[in-house]
Amino acid sequence: MSEKAINLRKGFEPYYNLGLANMELGRWAKAKAAFYGVDEVLFYGDHPISVDSWEERYTLAFYYLARSQAQLGEANNVIWILESGRRVYNQKSLWALRPLRLGCLYLWVGKRDAAIAQYKILKKNNSKLAAELLKLIKKHGKPA
């Protein structure tokens, strides 16, 4: 159903719902693709959002993208890419998402302290994104 919705209207909800459905079914590659679709729609679509209009569900999309990457064994490679400083976003304002993405990935590979370090970076530059990452750390970043 979400795949049909995406064909009709490329928006956040169809991609997000498709990603959630594929996660439930253990289809990690399809979940990852759907959550990358969320990224595409949010930042490069007809009505790109700014970090200032951020919502919690956008944070969850990044968290679930990180989960999909971890399930596929890609998380450490993505962490390396993000840590290396290569820009994965062309807009300067979106570069602020790098610590959020890293924080989500660190949570999925069990590096809570590294996620907290990303929170501290965000706190200096964007308190709204920092608060979102802190919620994830508190909820999902418990040591195993």
Number of domains: 1
Main sheet attributes: strand count, strand direction, barrel closure: none
CATH topology heading = Serine Threonine Protein Phosphatase 5, Tetratricopeptide repeat
* Beta-strand content estimate: under 5%
- N/C terminus separation: 36 Å
Could you list the spans in which at least 5 consecutive residues all have pLDDT below 50?
Answer: none
CATH class: Mainly Alpha
Which structural class best describes the helix and strand composition?
mainly alpha
Q: How does the overall form come out from the CA principal axes?
A: globular
CATH architecture assignment: Alpha Horseshoe
Overall pLDDT, averaged? 84
> Rg from C-alpha positions?
15 Å
Number of E strands: 0
By DSSP (H or I, 4+ residues per run), the number of helices equals 8
Helix content: over 70%
Order of helices and strands: HHHHHHHH
Describe this structure in words.
The structure is a single chain. The chain has eight helices and no strands. The protein has one domain (2-140): Serine Threonine Protein Phosphatase 5, Tetratricopeptide repeat. Helices cover 70% and strands 0% of the residues.
